[in-house]
Design a protein that fits this description.
Strand content: 15-25%
Shape: globular
Number of domains: 1
Structural class: alpha/beta
Largest sheet: 5 strands, mixed
Strand order of the largest sheet: 3-2-1-4-5
Number of strands: 5
Helix content: 40-55%
Radius of gyration: 17 Å
Amino acid sequence: MQYPNDLTVIVPQFRMVTDLNKRAFSDRLVFLSAFAVLRAVRGDDNNITFRQRIEIDPDGNRTMDLLCQFGDELQPGTTIGGWRLDRQVASFIRLPRDSDREDEGKAPLMRLSLALVSKPIDVGWFDQHGGLPTVSTAASLHGLPAEWRNQSNNPALVGQRLAARARSIWASIGEKLLEQGEARRKAFANFDQFNTEGGGMK
């Protein structure tokens, strides 16, 4: 496995509610409540440009809008990176299935499907404990306030935690896949500068 030149780290946040009165695919309805996307593009000079986007649905009624915005971030040819991608993909598939905007939700799911064909990178593969030690170590090493065991619904914290998770995942992938040498040094220098400047952290 090699470090890709175009990497998109995805960190969606889902919530689930039980609706006993609705005839749908399932009485356990899944909603996308927020997401962070961190795109890292490496140039010919081995410098990496980072760009992060965070979207939050504070009212609980913009799930399909967020799904479409998420799809817009999945550019052709990018490699998807994440943590426990199998669970995330399963939740994404559920999103439009019971929505009156189901047809609209098919386009971002197709983009996700195409991106997943390009050898995704799941930090969950990096250690024997599902990746949690790896991402926790990366967060600690880079001073990122990522919370992995609990999900916050506090709008003041959601964006910051999702941003920190995305960056921790990138750092985990970089540590694992970037070979020792000048290219690696440049990559982490770019990353440290991005973190120092804020880079979209909320």
